[in-house]
Amino acid sequence: MIKSFKLLLLGCCVALFAVSACKLEEIPDPNGPSLDPILQDATIGELQNLVTGTESLLRQEIGFYYDVVSIVGREYWYFTGSDPRYTGELLGKGSSVLDNAGFYGTRPYAGRYRTVKNANILIEAVTNTTAALSDADRKGYIGFAKTMQAYELHLALNLQYQNGIRLDVSDPDNLGPFVSYDEALAGIKALLDEAADDLDAAGSEFVFSLSEGFAGFDSPATFKQFNRALAARIAMYQNDKAEVNKDLGDSFMDMSGDFYMGPYRPFSTAGGELTNPLFRVPGQSEGIIAHPTFVEAVQANPNDDRNSKIAMRSDTLALDDLAGNYDVVVYNSLESPIYFIRNEELILLAAEAQIGIDNSAAVAAIDVIRTGHGLDPYAGDMTDEALLDEVLNQRRLSLFAEGHRWIDMRRYDRLDELPIDRPDDDIWVQFPRPVSETGG
């Protein structure tokens, strides 16, 4: 079964905070008395702290986001005796429904808006400061802030879908309205385009520092390549293939490059720093268990090196009438990065964007992925339908546990092709609007 939710909006409250982790310094409490001076005349050091705080917030609650979209999209199950909702509500067990106060919807949603709000503070502080910054310097800060806002808004929209989201939360006392899914995509794309213009005017260097996760993407020109990669993803959600191809041309896509080239969220086991929230020790009594249909798909070809994304257990782990034999090991340590977007996804976007335009070019991009993972070149039908099936399958294998399968199947109206694990389970279309946004 496929279900969706429409909940009445009555009000909203978005919290804002930042924490210190992974070489990202603590910023002043935005809810405290120190905020007004920062907004009115921030120092260079305070602006750096706001940049650093924005990076830190990009990692807050992100584990919940990846877990819930992967579970709902039937990529993996999360077996834990501490919370039955992972195998109950998220899979639509029996008569259960998604709860608009459930942590699985409220925490990733609020986490994304904390970043957006922090970036708004950065933009206002940069605009108002009398510090010795050139116009180009200011554009660099703003281009960074808008890009990360757009990224976080698109994750919130992935969860909410036809419920829509707020694009404007700059005034906490007068929040902007909810806009539809299509309007939100257009607004996110416009924000990325604005940021790209800002980055074009930002000179040759940023005057602020970014973490190691942005190594190679830490100048206005290279950060813009990241911005254009995100723009290509959003354009594909809009089914605007011409725009996808244009944005990919300005991105860091490299058909012969490392599949894992791209900016990421860094994690570390060093004292006081943040560890990867998606890592679970394989072979334990609690864990992330690869969905049997993914296991079957990736093991269809033993030469496919994407078999390394799963690891066979010494025992079968079972819970709540579900059972599996393979742990997910995509994130195989507490220090594993979580990518914002990477080269492999861009190559797959290029393949998808060529379907129906130049199918030979689509196959050429598909073969970069196939041969790069140890498979033979594509030898199937050249119809649009067959090529789309192949691209979606390669996306399933290549981007496993990276938050795409559920969204991919939804945008092609194929959610009914996802497996039902138990007779009365459901496939959810979207998450309910959080209780903080409904007033009850």
Task: Give a written overview of the molecule.
Helices cover 42% and strands 8% of the residues. It has 440 residues and is mainly α. It has a domain at 287-328. A two-stranded parallel sheet has the order 1-10. A two-stranded antiparallel ribbon has the order 2-6. Strands 3-4 form a two-stranded antiparallel sheet. Helix 3 packs across helix 4.
Distance between the ends = 27 Å
SS elements, strand count? 10
Adjacency order of strands in the biggest sheet: 1-10
Q: Can you tell me the overall shape?
A: globular
Amount of helix: 40-55%
Task: Summarize the helices and strands and which ones pair or pack.
Elements: E1 2-3, H1 35-41, H2 44-57, H3 62-72, E2 76-79, H4 103-128, H5 135-160, E3 165-166, E4 178-179, H6 181-200, H7 220-237, H8 241-249, E5 264-265, E6 287-290, H9 292-298, E7 310-319, E8 322-328, E9 338-339, H10 343-354, H11 359-372, H12 384-398, H13 405-411, E10 427-428
Helix pairs in contact: 1-4, 2-4, 3-4, 4-5, 5-6, 5-7, 6-7, 7-8, 8-10, 10-11, 10-12, 11-12
